[in-house]
Amino acid sequence: MLQQNLYYSTRLCQKEEVCSKSVINSCSDCIKSGPYCVWCQQLNFTKPGEQEAVRCDTQAKLLERGCKAEEILSPPNSDTVTKNDRLSSTFDQQEPVQLAPQEIRLELRPGLPTTFPIHFKRVQGYPVDLYYLMDLSNSMKDDLQNVKGLGKDLFAALKKITQHAQIGFGAFVDKTVLPYTNTNKDKLQRPCDAADKQCQAAFGYRHVLSMTPREEEFKTKVTEQFISGNLDSPEGSLDAMMQASVCGDKIGWRNSSTRLLVLTTDAGFHMAGDGKLAGILEPNDEHCHMENNLYVKSSEMDYPSVGQLASQLDKNNIQPIFAVTKNVVNVYRQLSQMIPKSEVGELSSDSRNVVRLIEDAYNKLSSKVTVTHDNLPENVRVVYTPRCEHAGPPGENRGVCDQVRISFDVTVTADTCMKTTSFTISPLGIKDTLTVTLSTNCECQCMDPQVANHTHCKGKGRVHCGICSCSQGFVGQFCECSIGDKDEGTLREACKDENGVECGGRGDCVCGRCECHTTESGNYYHGAFCQCDDEQCEKFQNKLCGGKGKCNCGTCECNTGYEGSACQCTVSQEACRTINNTVCYGRGNCKCNRCECDEGYQPPRCQKCLGCQNPCLTKLNCIECLGFDQGPFKKNCTEACSKSVFHQMVDQFTLSSKQCEQKDSEGCWVKFKLDQLVGKDNYWAEILKSRGMVEIILTYIYIRPVAVHTCSVRYTAVPKWHSMLRKLKKERKTSFDAELEIRASSTWTY
To answer: What is the pLDDT of residues 199-217, one digit of tens each?
Structure first.
């Protein structure tokens, strides 16, 4: 078959064959993993303890490992044409066939594309329905006069194409509400200029003539039409086109015909959202609302969007031709880009060239065939490749050919397994369709031995696709483990790692213990859950552990004389040595001849700590108890401080470090210097023997009835003078029956 030829021809290019395996427990899992994954059902293909997932790989790799070609399973794609009527040559009043085949059934393997051809041939003399939709605003007055005599030429042009032509006629202006139309009662009845003798009342869209093959009927109906008018320049052309598309029974579109809608205008168009200017908020519902040949919802419903119009034109196989004047040609060319199978022609100022314009546009439309699809299921991709002289590029949404008889290669890919579904393929503007029924093939058709207890499974199970399916009470690769009263689930739980994966996906659970598989290089995974391998360590100079160590469970164990995460360094402490011959001042580790400092300490040798607390504050309690036998640590000074602070009482400092000056627990100033030793909490301290004294002068004033007395008392080296003040104040108030004010001033002496 075509798709199998494509499949096996693709396999010649080995670089494209990749089998991306995930969790593989069966042949079905393998087939779902990728289009190039195949399964080996050969018995004894796997070694004892080896995971059955090795049966799943590309065909080339399985053959290389020793699997026989006839034992390789690879479900193919299949396509079956269920309806293929011959293409019609001419139209003979019966339903012609222009697209073949008409029905096809595909059974696809996920991810593997299949390609089939479709053919299109335009039938000679195929009926044509042309609906002439004209702008009757005041600016189209001259055009209307010419169109009234247009019938003969228009029918003559259509008869060159087919003997089965019909023409209809419709007219439009705009919504009859402000600000589009003057709503003065008289102006609504006669919106034209005063000089215009013949003028019809304002209207949105009017259907004038249903499809007819009679030239005289067309002429009569068009002759009865008169000009109308509105206020603004854009017209309600999209309103009119929408109604002409969805009111098929009123317009008279035939089931088997090429449907052309010719729009003639000299102005732009209103579209969805413009209705808000008139307070019209109801969106266009894309339904027919014609009564007595008038669009009755014109003033109640918003204009359609371009997307809505394009959808209905496509749904009803209508191909629009925009015959517009020079001033709006660019506007309609942009509109045409958003509406498939549409053409734009420049209309002369009086519409004299409209017949030639329609002929040219029809020839362009009929010479170009665009094939596309609708209702495409999720996870299905379609690519069209035209097979013609003037082919457009292959595309995922459509294919284009500029010939009457053309072919396309249609490539369909189902990305996942799915239930039976369908979609249709059709040429734009043509009624013919191809129905594609799609299903997926995700199961293996294995040729299993019809033996209940196969010797391959130790007589305790069946063989399915090369794997043992054990009888109740037995587990293991070859059903070699009898689980007795235990259930298989309990045994398997004992093999699951912290993530709930059985043997880490790298081994088989046999009787509650993991039997680890070999790696691709032939080594074994190891560990209680096969979590370790000796091939995933860090590399240096593209060598595992730099070639200077052994990889063990992801960590390099370096040879003597080497260190580092990849054994990339020789053991040396030269650059870590300090001036006092310590390593990193005892505040870090020397690795690869560089200090890795403890938190807060700075390289290169961890001497200073920028983020640490000030030792003048943190060591004050130790200084107070060691130097003066007082303070919070007085009772346990040796235990709290002797191991972190070594001190000496001095009259003068000899250390060059920064001087600390702190107030002790008795309010005296203590001066000391600290020098950090090796390690993080080791200091040498020099403590100044003398502490700062406080001299307090107390001034108290007491008042007698006849005189004010002021006294001053001087105290020197009085600690805790605040409590003394309170005591003195209490005594004075007791001695004198008067109000007492005590003021204190202090100076410090050493």
So the answer is: 888 999 999 999 999 989 9
